[in-house]
Design goal:
It is built from 20 helices and two strands. Strand 1 and strand 2 form a beta hairpin. Helix 5 runs parallel beside helix 17 and helix 6 crosses helix 7. The longest helix has 33 residues. The two termini are 34 Å apart.
């Protein structure tokens, strides 16, 4: 099968593709999320089971998307998948979610870079602050040096992408290599120089394990899944990947396998050097002012000088993941514009660089605005809900579409993998909705708002 790349240049190689998968996933989650997991399950073995389960569910998702990418290797990723498997309306709602909710991921990561940078460089106070009314709570928005820097970071990375996908791919390969080397160095340093599990035993014995129940495990799994999020980005770039039908599935599968190994090693390192109470009391929603798990582990094993190195590692990790999102998300809007669902200008291709230049600029502008008015937790929470909702829908789309075709998923292993991903995503989705948080309600409202927008576009096309 030869995919139409819609005028884009196929400048991404196999190693660029796997760098995008790993670079999209390995952000800041593995340095922070283990605290939330430990608080919910409470024993070392349960912690490792949760991270392995999250990894296997992510691998099932990657293999589901690999199947879709092999059959539908177009730019736009999930948008193209849903348009082919379930029709135009679900595809539009996915694109609308990316436009209104998921672009917030770019903004959240830009904010995260400034937060980590503030550990190294002093920032002045906000220039101004104002309140946005919200039922039952007050949402405060700061405008100052951090917000300005977040906007400059987004603009700089967008400019790099405008130069061409080859330049962006090479930059991503370098950044991903640096963050993987840095994480491996942290793991090795903690395991080799740390004081070992014998020092953990007294403290661990004093920590009562939470009662085992499905809801606690589900909440812990969700916390770990957030750290695995991002692997779908490479599918959005399929129209610019060389030999996309084989390269994208390969990158999805082996990229996630590599991330699973890294995450398990990182958790083993944390458990090796820290008492469980220290992991549970690290930075999280319950302890917002505490240092991260990674910071505590590095300090215990490597001493005070590790703080600077760790801050640099956090910055590189967040920067690499932000760049992946700025590469991938514009391709969704580009594909939608080519199908007449967004303004035609978003479907234009730069004559020299062969990139979707207007779509890249649009994403950068929206992300810059959100970086000013939002915060990391709020934006990432909304994006997580939106991503999981469409994970489930894409798995169902593959099963439905393949079942209606003669060349459906006849091999048993090809059917149970998307079914596993569908059930797992559905369970996590139900857990999020049951929480009823501001982020989930906001995401639901924004996604639902896409329905009248789509109906209006359909009416306009009929009359036009």
């Amino acid at each position: 099968m030869t995919a139409d790349n819609q005028g884009l240049r196929r400048g991404l190689t196999r190693w660029h593709a796997v760098a995008i998968v790993v670079g999209s996933v390995v952000g800041t989650g593995i340095y922070i999320r283990p605290a939330s997991v430990a608080q919910l399950v409470g024993t070392p073995s349960s912690i490792l089971i949760v991270w392995m389960s999250a990894g296997l569910l992510s691998l099932a998702g990657a293999m589901t998307y690999a199947e879709l990418a092999a059959r539908i290797p177009r730019s736009g990723g999930e948008y193209a998948f849903l348009r082919t498997t379930l029709g135009e309306a679900p595809a539009f709602l996915f694109g609308w979610m990316r436009l209104t909710v998921s672009v917030g991921t770019c903004a959240a990561l830009a904010v995260a870079v400034t937060v980590f940078l503030s550990d190294l460089l002093p920032f002045g106070a906000a220039w101004t602050r104002f309140e946005v009314p919200w039922p039952g709570a007050s949402i405060w928005i700061d405008v100052g040096p951090r917000q300005a820097l977040a906007v400059l970071i987004i603009v700089g990375l967008a400019a790099l992408n405008l130069r061409g996908v080859g330049h962006a791919g090479r930059f991503q390969s370098w950044v991903t290599s640096l963050k993987v080397i840095g994480l491996l160095g942290l793991i090795a340093g903690v395991l080799v120089l740390g004081h070992g599990s014998a020092a953990m035993a007294p403290a661990m014995a004093s920590v009562p394990a939470p009662a085992a129940n499905p809801m606690a495990f589900s909440a812990a799994l969700l916390a770990a899944m957030v750290a695995f999020n991002g692997w779908a980005s490479v599918a959005m770039l399929a129209g610019e990947v060389k030999d996309a039908e084989s390269t994208v599935p390969w990158a999805l599968t082996w990229g996630i396998v590599g991330v699973i190994a890294l995450y398990l090693l990182a958790n083993l390192a944390y458990l090796h050097v820290l008492p469980l109470s220290a992991i549970q009391g690290a930075n999280s929603t319950a302890h917002p002012a505490a240092p991260s798990v990674a910071s505590r582990a590095a300090l215990a094993a490597l001493g005070p000088k590790a703080g600077v190195v760790l801050s640099v590692l956090f910055i590189v990790s967040a920067l690499g993941t932000l760049h992946c999102n700025l590469m991938a998300v514009p391709r969704v809007f580009f594909a939608m514009a080519r199908d007449g669902l967004l303004p035609a200008a978003l479907g234009s291709v730069s004559a020299t660089a062969r990139t979707p230049a207007i779509a890249i600029l649009a994403v950068a502008v929206i992300a810059a605005i959100l970086a000013v008015v939002g915060n990391y937790d709020r934006l990432s929470g909304m994006a997580t809900f939106g991503n999981i909702a469409f994970f489930a829908l894409n798995a169902w789309g593959l099963l439905h579409w393949s079942g209606a075709r003669e060349s459906g998923l006849r091999a048993p292993h090809r059917r149970w993998i998307p079914w596993l991903f569908l059930v797992g995503s559905g369970w996590l989705l139900a857990t999020l909705i049951a929480q009823g948080s501001v982020e989930v309600v906001s995401a639901l409202v924004l996604i639902a708002a896409g329905i009248p927008v789509y109906l209006g576009i359909c009416a306009w096309r009929r009359t036009g």
